[in-house]
Structure formats: C-alpha cells, structure tokens
Design a protein that fits this description.
Elements: H1 15-21, H2 24-36, E1 39-40, H3 41-46, H4 52-64, E2 68-73, E3 76-81, H5 83-112, H6 116-119
Antiparallel strand pairs: 1-3, 2-3
C-alpha cells in the first residue's frame, strides 16, 4: 500500500543538505563562502568564535553533504561553495512552496463553496 509519506518528494535525497544547513555555525560558514569565494581555515576561523578544529569538523559535514569542497594550494587548503547542491535545495523548497500554495488554494475553494458538510 502506497501512502503520500512514502512517495519521494521534491526534496528526496536532500536530507543531508538540510541537516547540514540546520546548524547555525555551518550556515554561517556557507554564508561566508558564498560572499567571499575561496577561504582558508584561518580566514574562516577569524570570522567565528570556534577553534580551527571545530571549523574543520563543520566544513567536513558540509563537504559530506556536497555543499563545499576544498582546493589545495601548496600546504594550504582553501574552501569554496559548491552551488549545485544549494540550487537543488532551493528548487526543492520552491516545489514544496508551489505544492503548499496549491493545497491552500484548494482549501480556500472548498471553504468558500459553502458545502453543508463543512458547517455540520
């Protein structure tokens, strides 16, 4: 038996992205990378009250979700945003928003129809 909850929705496969972005520190790191391009751990650490090790752990979670990746420049690693996964999450949220608007529209039509069962 298939239910609405078991059908893959527009956000299928993006749970790791939303989980990674659900942490305020990781969201701050993504925001920094979004506005600044390539940044080193030292540059990212300077913008937070978290240790280098803490920032590195947060970056690894973001990397595992496909949101950031690093490039090596000699001994230094610089991090940058990988916009594809953020675009996918944005598109999923847009689709969910359209579904929500359609459902509200149907509810409004039903309520305004004056169906006697509704007032019982």
């Amino acid at each position: 038996m298939s239910t609405a909850n078991s059908a893959p929705g527009p956000a299928a496969g993006l749970a790791d992205v939303f989980a990674a972005l659900g942490d305020p520190t990781r969201l701050q790191l993504v925001t920094l990378l979004c506005g600044s391009g390539l940044l080193s751990i030292a540059q990212l650490t300077a913008s937070t009250a978290i240790s280098r090790q803490g920032v590195t752990k947060h970056l690894q979670v973001l990397a595992d979700a496909g949101l950031v990746h690093d490039l090596k420049f000699g001994r230094e690693r610089r991090w940058q945003l990988a916009p594809e996964r953020i675009d996918a999450a944005r598109h999923a949220l847009d689709a969910i928003g359209r579904q929500w608007e359609a459902a509200l529209g149907r509810l409004k039509t039903y309520v305004e129809s004056g169906d006697p069962e509704l007032s019982a």
